[in-house]
Design brief:
alpha/beta; single chain; Rossmann fold; 17% strand; binds pyridoxal-5'-phosphate; 2 domains
């Protein structure tokens, strides 16, 4: 039986944890943007703080999450995968079952409602894997707003079904040919658009990164994942999980799961970054594992740069993890030791992709497969009476062309 929705409502507890009033998580975060954007960020922060305390707004959000997104998503006992791994019980939080196939819709529904309430009629977004672009196009179509999505030219090629989906829903997809032609370049272009059109436009940022208030706001909109998971664990198992595992690109699905457990200090939290062709190869996107502190896309955080301080071209088989920065809250959680960050390479992710598909009949997104790979490793080191909860952040339909190509199969 699904838990009654009332127990898992999207009520927030802002101020209970970081960031502080100036948008800092310890030394991380902040607002490193041009003067043109400061008023827009202040306007956004005021609206966000106002509407999350507005019962009518929150009712609308809860209703959309239930009836449009399809929440709550279940936690699923992966019995076959557990047997194959041979250790702790593996549970999956099924964000892949959401409308549009990933956790990203939790945040876009929230931000689009906010845009609507603020009277903005044009939304823009950046996208890597295309999932955030699709989620943004989806909510824009529903609310009758103009939608422009910036996407790296390489990602457009890797994720053509998602590009077509966005266009079907009426969005304009702008190909970004600069830099590494991936997510970071798309983000730069989206910021540039926002500076130019700040009066009419709401920027729907897709992950828990960027200038304040985005990291906290995106986390809060995704925290429905952890609130549900925590209630479901207590309801169905009578205990909290021993460990939470989630993949980390910018960090929104991981924070969404972690956040409501942050004071449950017995619950270990592990973020899994993309080690690409290996951490020593330089062809990876493992920012927290191998990066250093700097400023990127409006906030102080870990990033991947070269000796001259230029942002490096990153690499991962999964477009959604291929990002040289990470949300500032993760940088803080790493420094204070509340969460741990590890790397999983392309090959390990591919093995987990196939293993979950074959054992459970669930094809995960390639991003998600990184979390699954580490979750299996971790479960092996634990005992059968323990529980590992993996955030199944998205489904793999969008990735089947990539996987087929890698394996020399013509579809
Ligand atoms: C975008 C995406 C990610 C990575 O983004 P986060 O903000 O780190 O969650 C992970 N999984 C899926 C399925 C995605 O679409």
């Amino acid at each position: 039986m699904a838990k009654p929705l009332a127990d898992m409502q999207a009520t927030f507890d802002p101020g209970a944890v970081m960031p502080d009033a100036s948008g800092h998580f310890g030394v991380y975060g902040g607002r490193f943007v041009s003067e043109t954007l400061m008023p827009a960020l202040e306007e956004l922060e005021m609206a966000w703080r106002r509407y999350i305390h507005d019962p009518e707004f929150m009712q609308r959000l809860d209703k959309d999450l239930a009836e449009f997104v399809g929440r709550p998503s279940p936690i699923y006992f992966a019995e076959n995968l557990t047997k194959a791994a041979g250790g702790a019980k593996i549970l999956l939080k099924r964000e892949d079952l959401n409308h549009t196939g990933a956790h990203k819709i939790n945040n876009t529904v929230g931000q689009a409602l906010l845009a609507h309430a603020m009277g903005k009629r044009r939304v823009i977004a950046e996208t890597g894997a295309g999932q955030h672009g699709v989620a943004s196009a989806t909510v824009a179509a529903r609310l009758g707003m103009e939608c422009v999505v910036y996407m790296g030219a390489d990602d457009i090629e890797r994720q053509s079904p998602n590009v077509f989906r966005m266009k079907l829903m009426g969005a304009t997809v702008v190909s970004v040919d600069t830099g590494s032609r991936t997510l970071k370049d798309a983000l730069n272009e989206a910021m540039r658009d926002w500076v130019t059109n700040v009066d009419s436009t709401f920027y729907i940022l897709g992950t828990a990164a960027g200038p304040h208030p985005y990291p906290a706001m995106v986390r809060d909109f995704n925290a429905i994942v952890g609130r549900e998971a925590r209630a479901q664990m207590l309801d169905q198992y009578g205990v909290l999980p021993d460990a939470l595992v989630a993949c980390v690109g910018g960090g929104s699905n991981a924070l969404g799961l972690f956040h409501p457990f942050i004071n449950d200090t017995d619950v270990k939290m592990v973020g899994v970054e993309a080690a690409g062709r290996g951490l020593s190869s330089e062809e990876h996107s493992a920012t927290l594992c191998a990066g250093r502190v700097g400023v990127l896309h409006g906030s102080r955080t870990y990033l991947l740069d070269d000796d001259a301080g230029q942002i490096r071209d990153t690499y991962s088989v999964s477009a959604g993890l291929d990002y040289p920065g990470v949300g500032p809250e993760h940088a803080w959680l790493k420094d204070i030791g509340r969460a741990e960050y590890v790397g999983i390479d392309d090959q390990q992710a591919m093995e987990a992709f196939h293993m979950l598909s074959r054992t459970e009949g669930i094809i995960p997104a390639l991003e998600t497969a990184h979390g699954v790979a580490y979750g299996i490793e971790l479960a092996r080191e634990m005992s059968p009476d323990q529980i590992v909860l993996i955030n199944l952040s998205g489904r793999g339909d969008k990735d089947i062309n990539t996987v087929a190509r890698l394996e020399g199969i013509t579809l």
